[in-house]
Amino acid sequence: MVHEPGRPPRANPGNEKTLHFINTYTWHVAMYGPSSDGTYSELVAKPPGLRLCSLSLINCEESMLLDYYIRMDTQIPGSDPPRPLMQVILQMALADSTPSSKAVLQGILALSSLRLSSNAAAFTYKTKAISALARSLSLDKTRELTSKTVVASMLLYLYETTHPSPTVPSWALYLCGVKKIAKSYTEPTPCRCMDQGPFFSWLHYHEIMGHFSLVWWAPPDPPPICFVDAAALLGLSRSEEPDALRTQDSQLGPNSSPALLLQNDEGPVCSLAILDVISLLFHTISPDTQDVISPKQRQHLLEAENTLRKYLWNYSSSAKSAYNSNMSTLLHTIAALIFLNRASLDYTGEEAAHEVLVKRGLDILETPSVSFTPWPIFIIACEAHRDSARLLILDVMGRMEKLTGRRRLTLLRHLIEAAWNYHDLNLERGSDYRVMLHTIIRTAPYMPFFA
Fold first, then answer.
1. Is position 129 within any domain?
2. Are residue 426 and residue 312 in the same domain, yes or no?
3. Shared domain check, 433 and 329
4. Per the structure, how many domains does the chain have?
5. Domain containing residue 30
6. Could you give the residue ranges of the DSSP H alpha helices within 218-293?
7. CB 144 within 8 A of CB 191
8. What's the pTM value of the predicted model, to 2 decimals?
9. In the predicted model, is pLDDT for residue 53 greater than 60?
10. Could you tell me which residue, 323 or 444, shows the higher pLDDT?
11. What pLDDT is stored for residue 174 in this prediction?
């Protein structure tokens, strides 16, 4: 709907500069009659007012890219903003013409263009997003400004994971930037995006997976990339994690439901409770971990194993049809157990219980509706030693590449094939799991990402 203030409609069609675009929907028109004749007050509830967006800030091509952004679903949760946040992010982008809003808008356009069309057009939007972000960072920090700069940085991070640089781990730098901006904001009232639980859960997941990348890929003296305090933004310090595990363990009794673990705790990619267990494993197990660990560390690892196994047991004994949305959490749980068994609990990979665990993970990957996440797929794929299992993994990779493009997953495919080659060449000699994992991840030309 077009409205020209101070003049009758179409009085001056030539002067478009005075026109205002009003974001009007059919239900606005439908409500006009009841509101004018007095019957509006008889309605049961007043619908919430919509926040008007400056649609005149975008052109036709950008409008199509925004429409793609709203509709896109790659089935890889980590590669997109969480659904509950997408509308909030869109409102930030279209709120006004400030540098921070432009940074969010150009970030959305860059990510959508990269997946929908050519790299050249996407790079143009990315350059504009970086320029607008740089201008916004020089301004005084406010609640809204910080919120938008954090979101814009996260969108640029997603761009770098979709189109990774072969020379530098740009995705890691952007992820660090997100954390630094969030931490630098000291006002007691949190910024708008930080009011959203899904945002912190989303950031928490990416940072934990980034820590795995750093530990297993980086040289002996790694660069100071800020992945060391993933839980701090959620209010959970590293020293508190074992206590948190014991709390979860006490809640998950023999007759408890898996819904108890997920209640008020379901992240956009994986249950936060399971994610905290995975974080503990990543901070305890590394290529430099000694073969003989301290009794305290072993106790923490056994508590983690107990928590993971109880979740699997409870899930198996419940009606699976009611928990299809939690398949991603189940996949992460299986991968975490495989990683723990092989990297710390001295499993050779030939144990019957371990093979059952691997088969269960492969069965989940075969499910058409499963959400694909790189880290669980990588861990399970490293245990795929039969041709049928490897063909299934390659089929899963093919489906993922159709959804996100080949470039995002080129490195993951390379690492999986390197793991298979390593296993086949050392079949008779045997190999240490941590040595194998470190060796194949170090073959990557740049720091890989598993989110």
1. yes
2. yes
3. yes
4. 3
5. 2-42
6. 241-251, 258-262, 272-284
7. yes
8. 0.77
9. no
10. 444
11. 86
